[in-house]
Amino acid sequence: MDLRLGDRPVIVTGGGAGIGAAIALLLANEGAVPVIFDRQPLAAGFEAELRSAQPRSLVFQLDVRDDAACIRAVADTVQALGGIAGLVNNAGANDHVGLDAGVPAFSASLQLNLVSVYRLAHLCLPHLRASRGAIVNIGSKTAVTGQGGTSAYVAAKAAMLGLTREWALDLRGHGIRVNCVIPAETWTPMYASELARSPDPAAARAAIERHIPLGGRMTRADEIARAVVFHLSDAASHTTGQWLFVDGGYTHLDRMAQGIATG
Ligand SMILES: NC(=O)c1ccc[n+]([C@@H]2O[C@H](COP(=O)([O-])OP(=O)(O)OC[C@H]3O[C@@H](n4cnc5c(N)ncnc54)[C@H](O)[C@@H]3O)[C@@H](O)[C@H]2O)c1
Predict the structure, then answer these.
(1) Which residues touch 218 (CB under 8 Å, ≥6 apart)?
(2) Chain centre to alpha carbon of residue 244
(3) pTM
(4) Sheet containing 58-61: which strands, arranged edge to edge?
(5) What is the mean pLDDT of each run of 10 residues along the chain (263 residues)?
(6) What is the pLDDT at residue 128?
(7) Are 58 and 81 in contact (CB under 8 A)?
(8) pLDDT attached to residue 261
(9) How many CB atoms lie within 10 A of CB 259?
(10) From CA 99, how far away is CA 147, in angstroms rounded?
């Protein structure tokens, strides 16, 4: 299948590590031009791999909560690459801001997990209209299951599901497609640091994996990336407003009916 992504500039927020890095690398390998917005510098090995796959890749070290920095980076991207054909809203953190935390902490979490998503879509909009581009939001299964103790993150990810539908309608006249790819248990630095909070991280990981119906294992970041890149490409030319769970059946399948997860 020809994804026909060649030379298309695609912004990936949080593209420096984990799921975002896998998306950026796959885009580069498909001939697109990844443009990473990340607050951390890239690991040297990852940057070398990215640039060898796509020498025109761009990296902006910025915080997606910083309006002025995002405005500058979007303008610089357009100047350097001639436009923007895709946006992946991936930066986010399951930051455990629960009901006890209070309004300032709740609002601060929404700045990262929700407001930045609107910010980037807003800033990229004229360029996506010009390119008839695509947006992919990276959600979380917690939007439909809850998690406990993480009100702000869940609120943001649930809003992302709504915005995916809202923007798909809003932007259909410009040929812009908007979809949401939803991970559940994907092995990334964020996940590793979550598990590191438990007394026995290896046992905690095994306990989770036992409940993942397909394969009894975590999703890999490259498996999320493939779904995202599909939605960015012309192969998804009539797919919009959709929520796709890439999670080995973890969110929806009846695990009791299957007995145990099988490999
Ligand atoms: N890993 C999972 O199992 C899982 C499950 C559900 C949803 N998700 C979602 O997937 C997305 C990526 O998660 P991940 O596990 O790869 O996370 P990660 O922490 O491993 O990587 C996130 C990247 O985003 C960057 N980032 C964070 N805050 C930023 C900011 N303010 N400005 C710019 N960059 C910033 C980080 O520097 C990092 O490079 C997140 O939106 C997360 O909520 C992940």
Answers:
(1) 185, 186, 187, 191, 205, 208, 209, 212
(2) 12
(3) 0.97
(4) 58-61, 33-38, 9-13, 86-89, 134-138, 177-182, 243-245
(5) 91 98 98 98 97 98 98 98 98 97 98 98 98 98 98 98 98 98 95 92 95 96 98 97 98 75 53
(6) 98
(7) yes
(8) 56
(9) 7
(10) 12
Quick one: which of 6, 17, 83 has its CA closest to 50? 17
**Do 77 and 84 form a contact (C-beta atoms < 8 A)?**
yes
Q: Which domains does the chain have, with CATH numbers?
A: 9-184+224-245 (3.40.50.720), 189-218 (no CATH)
Q: What are the structure tokens assigned to 260, written together?
A: 């145990």
Residues designated as active site: 153
The residue among 49, 31, 39 whose CA lies nearest residue 15 is: 39
Q: Name every protein residue with a CB atom under 6 angstroms from any ligand 1 atom.
A: 14, 16-20, 37-40, 63-65, 90-94, 112, 138, 140, 183-186, 188-191
Residue 256 pLDDT: 73
Report the C-alpha gap between 53 and 67 in whole angstroms. 30
| DSSP label of 13 | E
Residues 6+ apart with CB under 8 A from 6: 30, 31, 32
Distance 259 CA to ligand 1 centre (A): 32
